Amino acid sequence: MNPYVSLLIMAAVALVVALGGLALSAIVSPNKRNKIKTQNYECGIDPTPANTDHGRFPVAFYLVGMTFIIFDVEVVFLYPWATAFHRLGFFGLSAALVFIALITVPYLLEWRRGGLDWD
């Protein structure tokens, strides 16, 4: 058997599942449109002139989102350490502890500053 046959079968199954999901959602989903469904959604604030006339608007959603992205990317760097944990020994453990401390300090500062509060 050709080694690419299994890859082609997997690609065909993925294509059938993707197109089947799209077709099924088009058939089953309700298609009634109303004013609320077609309205733009921007972080919970209605885009009215009254909200934009005051200058500043709350950016808590964006701050929490950026904080999540920053810490999430930093935690991804721990995955290679976790896969090679046994081979790295004490040096790997100490490097990981320093890295975790470097992640924890900004997190605590962000928490103390109130960047994670929604009030």
Short description:
By secondary structure, this protein is an all-alpha fold.
Descriptive notes:
Its EC number is 7.1.1.-. It is a multi-pass membrane protein. Keywords: Cell membrane, Membrane, NAD, Quinone, Translocase, Transmembrane, Transmembrane helix, Transport. It catalyses: a quinone + NADH + 5 H(+)(in) = a quinol + NAD(+) + 4 H(+)(out). Its main location: membrane. This protein has 119 residues and is mainly α. The N and C termini lie far apart (63 Å). It is 71% helix and 0% strand. The mean pLDDT is 79. The chain has one domain (3-113): Up-down Bundle (Methane Monooxygenase Hydroxylase, Chain G, domain 1), CATH 1.20.58.1610. The chain has helices at residues 4-28, 35-38, 49-52, 60-76, 78-83, 85-113.
Question: What top-tier CATH class fits best?
Answer: Mainly Alpha
The helix/strand class is mainly alpha
In the CATH scheme, what's the topology name?
Methane Monooxygenase Hydroxylase, Chain G, domain 1
Percent of residues in helical segments? over 70%
CATH architecture: Up-down Bundle
How would a crystallographer describe the biggest sheet?
A: none
Number of beta-strand segments: 0
> How many domains, as an integer?
1
How many helical elements? 6
Mean pLDDT: 79
- CATH homologous superfamily name? NADH:ubiquinone/plastoquinone oxidoreductase, chain 3
Give the overall shape, derived from the CA principal axes. Answer: flat
Poorly predicted parts: none
Radius of gyration: 24 Å
β-strand amount: under 5%
Distance, first to last CA: 63 Å
Order of helical and strand elements: HHHHHH
